[in-house]
What we know:
Elements: H1 2-5, H2 12-15, H3 17-34, H4 38-61, E1 80-86, H5 92-100, E2 103-110, H6 123-132, E3 139-143, E4 156-162, H7 170-183, E5 184-195, H8 199-204, H9 220-230, E6 232-240, E7 243-250
Parallel strand pairs: 1-2, 1-4, 2-3, 4-5
Antiparallel strand pairs: 5-7, 6-7
Helix pairs in contact: 3-4
The structure holds S-adenosylmethionine.
Residues 87-89, 92-93, 109-112, 114, 116-118, 121, 145-147, 162-164, 167 line the site of S-adenosylmethionine.
Amino acid sequence: xxxxxxxxxxxxxxxxxxxxxxxxxxxxxxxxxxxxxxxxxxxxxxxxxxxxxxxxxxxxxxxxxxxxxxxxxxxxxxxxxxxxxxxxxxxxxxxxxxxxxxxxxxxxxxxxxxxxxxxxxxxxxxxxxxxxxxxxxxxxxxxxxxxxxxxxxxxxxxxxxxxxxxxxxxxxxxxxxxxxxxxxxxxxxxxxxxxxxxxxxxxxxxxxxxxxxxxxxxxxxxxxxxxxxxxxxxxxxxxxxxxxxxxxxxxxxxxxxxxxxxxxx
Length: 265
Ligand SMILES: C[S@@+](CC[C@H](N)C(=O)[O-])C[C@H]1O[C@@H](n2cnc3c(N)ncnc32)[C@H](O)[C@@H]1O
């Protein structure tokens, strides 16, 4: 059971908050019915039902405590190569790659400077989850900033970033995209996942209205044009619960378009 196998460290208000609310609302509903406050009891019963739905959505649909499901089979179809995970946190996105592409290696980059909802956010939790997946040997963890990545140009065959870049300001998103084009090989793929305020998120987390400068559902075109301005070619995009994804190819400008220059690095 993967829910018990991994510990991604998302704090209890995210993972168990709805279950606690469901228990409290249920007790209130029963008490109020017994005291013949039927209307208020009905409101509490409705809130209890919402909280049960929220617990199921957060844990099984949005998968806060499970590895992310690879949203497109078009990512790294060759199945092997060196993949960067920018803003890897406790490993949900690194494990997405390590399990879906068992011949690939992952370099997990994170600043680990703040928790972002992950209690004790640090390399140890990430490594423990890779160990639980039997993939520790294919994971390298680096502490660093994705806005100024500690890697040589053209290091990676592919890259992912999940629910991390959308925490950044617009200039920092642009800096990070530029860094991605630098550290990816020409033609290398970048799979970007950001929060989408879809019906699942709005139902389970109605207070979660804003996430980063670009927001979610309303602005897919901003993400797409940001990627294109940085030099990527978007080859696939879509949604999965709570998620907007873009698969983009690092498409360096044609050599002839750069007077006097032969490469970008
Ligand atoms: C919400 S967590 C997402 C973690 C993981 N990708 C997932 O989907 O569960 C966001 C992560 O981005 C990292 N992060 C934020 N700003 C960063 C930066 N400038 N450079 C590297 N990592 C950063 C945080 O430390 C945090 O671990």
